[in-house]
Amino acid sequence: MIVTRRWLEEYIDLEGISDQALHDTFNSIGLEVDSMQRHTMPEKVVVGRILSCEKHPDADKLNLCSVDVGADAPLQIVCGAANVREAEYVAVATVGAVLPGDFAIKPAKLRGVESFGMICSSSELGLPEMGKGIIILDKSIGELVPGKPLRDYPDFNDTVIELELTANRGDCLSIRGVARDLSAALDRPLVAQPQPKPETLPLGIARIVDLHTHGQIEAELLYDYVEKEALRLPLLIELRLAYVDAWSESPLASHLAYATHATGVILRAYDAGRLRDGEGRVPLELEETAPGLVEVRSAGRLLSVVGVTASAEFTADDESRELLLEASYIDPERLVPAVAAAEVKPDALYYRSSRGSEPEIDLGMDRLMAECSRDGECRVSKTPLRIETDYEARTLAVDTARLNAVIGQEIPLGTVHTILKRLGFTIHGGDKERFGVTIPRWRHDIRNIQDIAEEILRIVGINNIEAKPLAFTEANRLTESAKRFRIRRDLRQEAVAAGFYEAVTYAFADRKKLEAYGFPVVEASKELLNPIVEEFNTLRSTLTINLLEAAQRNVSYGKRRIPLFEIGSVFDRERREREKMTLLWSGDAEEPDVGNQGKPPRIDFALFVRKLGSILGEYEMTECRESNGLIHPYQSATILLHGQEAGWVSKLHPSVAEAFGLEETFLAELDFDALIPPHIDAQPVSNFQGTFKDLSLLVEKELPYGKMKKALESLEEPLLKRFFPIDRYEDEQLGERKSMTLRFFLQSDEGTLSDEVIEGVMARILETLQSRCGAELR
Question: How many domains does the chain have?
Fold first, then answer.
């Protein structure tokens, strides 16, 4: 995007702002300056008024001009430009002037005729190329006074700035858009743009243009009708268009380009004379042929695709006397994918509309009509035709604390509001903690609080933000669901490592089987209304029946070793859901191989509970308190984890095993919630050597180990780190007693234990077991 300082000053007061300050401001607000060039007129280049122009006596292509430059007598200057005959005021480099390229002006004799100066073209003055011939001055640059230096005319001494815009900043593809950003950065208001009222026609446009729409049109359109006798192009417009690399020889094309570059509105002109039908009217039909593609047709002939392209056949030119002017806006987020899908070939204006043109289309039409009426003989219709959409502005809720956290520094709320208002945002509410922001339509790229923070940050200036070490702030993502997922995953991996295979069964079961084996069933009022099959007529209340059925199928396939597990949901009488883990091992304990000579041992209770330990970690077993038809009355236990009941483990009842056709089979069913480990505080590890000591004791045959365990835990001996049974022995010679051997691990955190200290601890342990459990040293 190319802008000039003088053009910007039509929209914002830049008094007191140097070019360097302007350069730094642009860079700080994200409009990176790619280049900046100051154009200054050389000295002794003045306004000249041609008094007469005659052919050179000895050269057909040269003209002999008498030029008033404010001196006592006019200058005689020989000029070869063809358009000098049409000129009145010109730029004259007088003798002594040094033009760009170190071209010094001196008295000369051309074909025998003396010449005292040079009438200059734009390129000879160091300005951009503006066609062939000399530059012709007019009142658009100010009052023309012969002899007045051109460097005294501000528009000839301008700064041209080329800005590098990011793809989302289509709102700055205009002088007004850039000025809007400067307004926020410099805290200066935009200057109102008074426009002269053009001469109007006696008839409204509706008497000339017959407009029809088909369906919903998702675009903004404005049409005006102009009768044009002549259209002149003032030097100021030519000069500015040349500065921004948009100069054209066509006055109409130049006026359209000038208004578009100034306001950002997409403007097109059609030749209304070529569009009139047999009744002298101009028919227009608008239809959205695909989401984002709006076609404009006249009597079936395609005029344009809004924001994309226009028909060259009906585009107006300088010879057109009747103009149909069109200003348009279409949402780029709808337009771009539609154009890509339809493979429509766009023209030059698509670059603007695809990045987001100015949605306030009246600005562009008013500017165009004002310039055309001021510099030409044009009459416009009284009231334009308008197509509008039901646009709903996007509003964001902004949390002030979060906004400052994103920026990295607290910005006063008043400053935040001022910046946003300058940028065209609307503020709702005055709460210090939260406020609402309505996004202007031209900022379609603003989506979230991070985008708002970026707007604040670039206007405040990144250099004005205090440097801080990089820090990441992240909310706790370890939710209860994530925690359960991780534990479920870990249990699966441990079960597979222990030799089990995961089974996935239906959440349904046979109600009769559940009742037959003593499991609860869902109340009749909450039962399934439409079971998928008769065998699955209720929700399961246990996983064990499903796994037994799976094991039965494996037996029919010839499997002799069947280790299965499942983690899944079960349901109580009220259909409340909870999660359980069930494990089953039936038949051989291992695969047949050389080591077992093809005769693997059968699974037994001891091996099964060891496999449970490899999955669950440390756990305890007590007398079984579960009651159902699957449990063996003599080989079953309640499992305790972290001191809480977690489930049960049992050998499958022989009658049930026979019913399912299974051999030796063991089961365990656990509540998943009980498997979730509690928070465990880390304990210090001693640097000193520990020692193991064994005690063999005689106790009553019916005495459970759990009672001995409770007695030892009540001792609260700090040197006793852990203990566990290692042997149990019964014999006729022992009568009603049994031998229990316990192993104790003793360790100190402060030093190596002496024999005296060890003996003292063991004595206290023995005394406790003797008094609490009736134990005797064997």
Answer: 6
DSSP code at position 29: T
CA distance 173 to 189: 20
In sign, the C-alpha dihedral spanning 702, 707, 709, 714 is negative
pLDDT tier for residue 195 given thresholds of 50, 70 and 90: low
Q: How far apart are the C-alpha atoms of 641 and 620, rounded to whole Å? A: 7
Of 677, 687, 695, 709, the residue nearest 766 (C-alpha): 695
Kindly report the pTM of this predicted structure. 0.63
Residues 34 and 51 in one domain: no
CA distance 401 to 416: 12
Question: Which element (helix H / strand E) includes 272?
Answer: helix 272-275
First CA to last CA across the chain, in angstroms? 99
Per residue in 531-541, pLDDT tens?
Answer: 888 889 999 99
Residue 701 domain-assigned (yes or no)? yes
Can you give the pLDDT at residue 375?
66
404 domain-assigned: yes
Return d(Cα 527, Cα 516) in angstroms, integer: 18
How far is it, in rounded angstroms, from Cα 390 to Cα 409?
A: 39
Is 474 annotated in a binding site? The answer is no
Q: How many Cβ atoms from other residues are within 10 Å of residue 777's Cβ? A: 10
**Structural domain boundaries, residue 177:** 2-39+160-186
**Do 218 and 299 share a structural domain?**
yes
Question: What residues contact 766, with CB distance under 8 A and at least 6 apart?
Answer: 695, 775, 777
Q: Is 671 annotated as a binding residue?
A: no
Q: What is the pLDDT of residue 80?
A: 86
The answer to whether 54 is annotated as binding is: no
623 is in an annotated binding site: no
Within 8 A by CB and 6+ apart from 597, the residues are none
String of DSSP letters for 341-384: HHT----TTHHHHHH---S-HHHHHHHHHHHHHHSEEEEE-SS-
CATH of residue 717: 3.30.70.380
